[in-house]
Amino acid sequence: MQFRFDGFFGFPGGIVDPGESPEEALNRELSEELGLSSLVEFSKDDRVMVHYNKYKLLLLHFFLKEVSFDDFREIELRSMCAPEYGNEVLGTVRVPLYTMTDGYSSDKSSEER
C-alpha cells in the first residue's frame, strides 16, 4: 500500500484517461507512482473485482498480481525513484495480511519467549 499525500493509506491508481482501458490506466499509474514501467504489467486477466461508488460516481477496478519476494523488494526500491514520489506518494507500507500466533513471529523460537 501507499502512504498518500493526503495522509491516508491507499492503493496505487487513478483516473482512466480518454481512450485508455482500465488496464492501460493502471499500468501508467503504476509507472508514475511506483516506477514499475517494465517490472510488472497488468492485463484483463488480473482484474478481480469492479465496484461502483454511487456517492462519488466512480467505477473502481481492483486487480491482483502474485509476485516473487525478489520482485516485491524491487517494487519497494523502485517506488522511491518514481516520478510521483514525494508529491502524490510519500512511501510504501507493508500491511500484514495475517496475524502470527504470538502476535510477533512465525518461527519456533518465538514460542520460547
UniProtKB/TrEMBL annotation:
<dbReference type="GO" id="GO:0005654">
    <property type="term" value="C:nucleoplasm"/>
</dbReference>
<dbReference type="InterPro" id="IPR054754">
    <property type="entry name" value="NudT16"/>
</dbReference>
<comment type="similarity">
    <text>Belongs to the Nudix hydrolase family. NUDT16 subfamily.</text>
</comment>
<dbReference type="GO" id="GO:1990174">
    <property type="term" value="F:phosphodiesterase decapping endonuclease activity"/>
</dbReference>
<dbReference type="InterPro" id="IPR020476">
    <property type="entry name" value="Nudix_hydrolase"/>
</dbReference>
<feature type="domain" description="Nudix hydrolase">
    <location>
        <begin position="1"/>
        <end position="113"/>
    </location>
</feature>
<dbReference type="GO" id="GO:0030515">
    <property type="term" value="F:snoRNA binding"/>
</dbReference>
<dbReference type="GO" id="GO:0006402">
    <property type="term" value="P:mRNA catabolic process"/>
</dbReference>
<keyword id="KW-0539">Nucleus</keyword>
<keyword id="KW-0546">Nucleotide metabolism</keyword>
<dbReference type="InterPro" id="IPR020084">
    <property type="entry name" value="NUDIX_hydrolase_CS"/>
</dbReference>
<dbReference type="InterPro" id="IPR015797">
    <property type="entry name" value="NUDIX_hydrolase-like_dom_sf"/>
</dbReference>
<dbReference type="GO" id="GO:0009117">
    <property type="term" value="P:nucleotide metabolic process"/>
</dbReference>
<dbReference type="Pfam" id="PF22327">
    <property type="entry name" value="Nudt16-like"/>
</dbReference>
<dbReference type="GO" id="GO:0005730">
    <property type="term" value="C:nucleolus"/>
</dbReference>
<dbReference type="GO" id="GO:0140933">
    <property type="term" value="F:5'-(N(7)-methylguanosine 5'-triphospho)-[mRNA] hydrolase activity"/>
</dbReference>
<dbReference type="InterPro" id="IPR000086">
    <property type="entry name" value="NUDIX_hydrolase_dom"/>
</dbReference>
<keyword id="KW-0378">Hydrolase</keyword>
<dbReference type="GO" id="GO:0016077">
    <property type="term" value="P:sno(s)RNA catabolic process"/>
</dbReference>
<dbReference type="GO" id="GO:1990003">
    <property type="term" value="F:IDP phosphatase activity"/>
</dbReference>
<keyword id="KW-0694">RNA-binding</keyword>
<protein>
    <recommendedName>
        <fullName>U8 snoRNA-decapping enzyme</fullName>
        <ecNumber>3.6.1.64</ecNumber>
    </recommendedName>
</protein>
